[in-house]
Amino acid sequence: MKRQRILMVAAVTALALFLLPGEQFSVYAQSGKGALPTAKPTPAPKPRPTTAKPAAPVTPVVPVTPTLVLNQESSGRLNPQESEKGAGGSLFQEYLLNAKSDEVLTFRLEGENAALELQILDADKKEITLAKDAASGEFKINSSTGALPADGEYRLRVSGAASGKTSIPYTVKVNRLGLTGNAYNERFNRLYTAYAALPEGDSAALDETLVRFEELAKDDETRATTFELLGIIYLYNKHDAAKAGQAMEQAIKLKGAAVVKISYDSQWRRMAKLKAGNFGWEDARTGWLRIRPGQIALTDPSNKTLASLSGMQIKELSKILTATSSLVTITAENVRRPLVFAPGSGQQAEADLVIRLIQNYVMGKNN
Questions:
Q1: Crossing angle for the helix pair 224-232 and 241-253, nearest 10 degrees?
Q2: Measuring CA to CA, which residue among 131, 69, 129 is closest to residue 96?
Q3: Is 236 exposed, middle or buried (0-12, 13-18, 19+ CB in 10 A)?
Q4: Which of 359, 362, 321 is nearest to 343 (CA)?
Q5: pLDDT in tens, 142-161
Q6: In what order do the strands lie in the sheet with 326-332?
Q7: How far apart are CA 169 and CA 327, in angstroms?
């Protein structure tokens, strides 16, 4: 028995040598009844209580109010399921409109339902009075200027009576016609005063003034006066006959005039060799030529009319080249002598421009 114990202790000691650091082993002794003790079961870990995360709040869908673009048509429909409800069960759709108080606007609303109505509301939801033009069917702002009372954001509302579950299609368009008379005159007069006071040779100031006139022409494309002055600036300040011609043609199309400087003899005589040895007018004068739709007028510097001709009166239109200038000659009915003059610069490009404008817009080719 003592020997068995010694062997058992030796075996246990040897087994411990093979264990890694930190590892343990268990030894079970036999009971007096000859049975080995049973191992205790490892208890299962208790599940941790879980807390349910609250659901994320649902953000309500806010309807987006569409914004109208000037001079572009927008389509829509009044739908009983989607449109907002007004008094008496009517339906309406609103649009945002950003406008200025110096803009002349008209509004067009078209649809299959003739009972559709149009309203303009300001930021305080105060209605702007509109008047419908019987001839065009367009709505105009009922004010002396034809413009909104202030710069800012407005709401355009299209409304109509509900018709069961049927939607009501329509189109709406806001037309920008240009600037109010007061706004245009104020800007033009300010620019013209600046142009007239330009120091000679100040190209930077000239370019800045030219840019401002181009902006004015873009803001109101219906005013011939802007294009008349642009033609003068491009022809005599920038020496660009091509751009001058474009501006002058636009002025004529708007029932204005192409304005050209001229020099001439008081008796409409041709240039002759003068005592000083050079060629020129014997009795030199200066003035203006104005080319309008179907008509030309020659005036002195004070705008007193020297001659006025319709396209039907003009029988011959020609160009004469001299050593120093390019002249234009007009032969007409009921005019005793041909009208001979030199365009302001005396250059051939300007003479060609004058002849082309008279042919196209006075004598009937584009008239």
A1: 160
A2: 69
A3: middle
A4: 321
A5: 998 889 999 999 999 999 98
A6: 305-310, 295-299, 284-292, 258-265, 339-343, 326-332, 314-321
A7: 63
Residue 90 CB-density burial (10 A; 0-12 exposed, 13-18 middle, 19+ buried): middle
Tokens 């390019």, located at residue: 326
Mean pLDDT, residues 96-108? 96
- The tokens describing 117, both together, are 């109505």
* 318 within 8 A of 329, measured Cβ to Cβ: yes
Count other C-beta atoms under 10 Å from residue 132's C-beta: 13
CA–CA dist 207, 34 (Å, integer):
119
pTM, rounded to two decimals: 0.77
As a whole number of angstroms, the distance between CA 158 and CA 91 comes to 8
The rounded distance, in Å, linking the Cα atoms of 106 and 156 is 12
What pLDDT, in 10s, does the model give residues 31-69? 555 555 555 666 666 666 666 666 666 665 556 899 999
Tell me if 288 sits within 8 A of 298, measured CB to CB.
Answer: yes
Helix crossing, 348-361 with 241-253: angle to 10°? 20
> What is the reported pLDDT for 346?
87
Structure tokens given for 79: 């739908």
Q: What is the mean pLDDT of the chain?
A: 87
Separation of alpha carbons 202 and 78, rounded Å: 59
Strands (E), 133-187: 139-141, 152-160, 168-179
- Per-residue DSSP letter, 205: H
d(CA 258, CA 228): 6
What is the rounded distance in angstroms from the CA atom of residue 25 to the CA atom of residue 288? 122
